[in-house]
Design brief:
Elements lengths: L2 H21 L2 H11 L2 H11 L8 H8 L10 H10 L5 H10 L8 E5 L5 H6 L10 E5 L2 H13 L5 E4 L10 E5 L9 H5 L8 E7 L1 E2 L4 E6 L4 E8 H10 L2 E9 L17 E8 L25 E3 L17
Parallel strand pairs: 1-2, 1-4, 2-3, 4-5, 6-8, 9-11
Antiparallel strand pairs: 5-10, 7-8, 9-10
Helix pairs in contact: 1-2
The structure holds S-adenosylmethionine.
Length: 323
């Protein structure tokens, strides 16, 4: 980083820290919101916060953070961190295991969207009964794919493979998007509707979703900074339902949170998890769904919630959230 960029970075981070502190006080929160809702105030906040302000689109956030990104998702330290974080299951993984445990023996193909170097595979195989002929495909950025391939060869793991072709996602039993949806400029239902087939099960985990208007921010993990899009939960669920999916489980990922420096009312105290099953075989793109063992949930559209009353933990985050 050039010294000018470094200095600006220090200024941005210090300002974000001061605003974070202010937002812990009710008057401070009120003040930030009041200042931010005037045109003049919001432009001052925007200029002092730089890449740490909120944006309307992922593209705007990506452009703002570019000089400060430190390699972003493809920084090798990031892959090492994810492997380490996934040595053991995290709280939100246990909710996922609840839905996966009975289905896993019947699942032959998994598509792991934003699966990094395969860290979720290495973690889940210690907790779930994976089929011996399971094919687990990770979709990630080229550098992570190649690191993952090397790691899989070193560990002599034959059923883990890597791709940069999203079209492979259709012909799978289980689509996993853990900690990744928010890095894509299209919501997942829009990405899926272009496929020839739709996955039967979808596991979404560790994803920041809002009930308010959609916005983008930069997650600051110190070693990297990455732009994230915070999608609207109800809209995403409605779009999944239009594709023939039912949400059969919802939970919170209390290990992750997302502060929004210039709009504390939009802070997320926890990330989200969703379990979806394709129940409407007549919806677009569903004709060639696989005939897996039927589940006791088929056709049921009520949602079970987990951890709704859990304390909103301020724990280390997968990308330690905006410090
Ligand atoms: C926070 S990590 C999630 C890792 C893992 N799935 C987990 O739950 O621990 C997000 C992953 O999304 C990947 N990613 C981000 N943008 C991407 C893109 N445009 N195409 C493919 N992968 C992307 C990153 O490289 C990174 O591996």
């Amino acid at each position: 980083m050039q010294s000018g960029v470094k200095l600006r970075d220090i200024q941005i981070r210090s300002t974000a820290r001061i605003l974070r502190f202010m937002s812990t006080l009710s008057y401070g929160r009120w003040l930030i919101e009041r200042v931010g809702c005037t045109r003049f105030g919001s432009s001052i906040l925007g200029s002092v916060l730089g890449y740490r302000r909120s944006f309307q689109t992922l593209d705007e956030a990506e452009r703002a953070v570019k000089p400060y990104a430190k390699g972003g998702h493809e920084n090798p330290a990031n892959a090492a961190l994810h492997l380490q974080l996934n040595c053991a299951a995290r709280p939100s993984d246990y909710a996922a295991f609840y839905y996966l445990r009975d289905r896993m023996p019947f699942i032959r193909k998994v598509f792991d969207f934003g699966g990094n170097v395969g860290n979720l595979y290495y973690c889940y195989k210690n907790y779930l009964p994976l089929a011996s002929d399971l094919k687990w495909t990770v979709y990630d950025l080229p550098e992570n794919n190649s690191r993952g391939q090397t790691l899989a060869s070193e560990r002599k793991v034959a059923n883990l493979q890597f791709t940069d072709n999203i079209r492979e996602a259709g012909a799978v039993d289980l689509f996993i998007a853990s900690g990744s949806l928010h890095y894509f400029d299209k919501p997942l239902p829009n990405l899926l509707e272009g496929l020839d087939q739709l996955p039967r099960y979808i596991l979404i985990n560790r994803t920041p979703l809002t009930e308010g208007r959609e916005f983008a921010v930069v997650q600051d993990a110190r070693h990297i900074r990455v732009a994230s899009m915070i999608y609207n939960r109800s809209r995403m669920i409605a779009d999944f339902e239009r594709l023939g999916y039912a949400v059969l489980g919802e939970w919170q990922a209390p290990e992750l949170r997302l502060p929004v420096a210039d709009r504390p009312s939009a802070d997320l105290c926890a990330f989200s998890g969703l379990w979806l099953e394709h129940v409407n075989r007549h919806a677009a793109g569903s004709e060639s769904l696989h005939n897996l063992a039927p589940t006791s949930f088929d056709g049921v559209t009520t949602r079970s919630r987990h951890f709704d009353d859990a304390p909103k933990a301020d724990l280390a985050t997968q990308i330690p959230s905006n410090a």
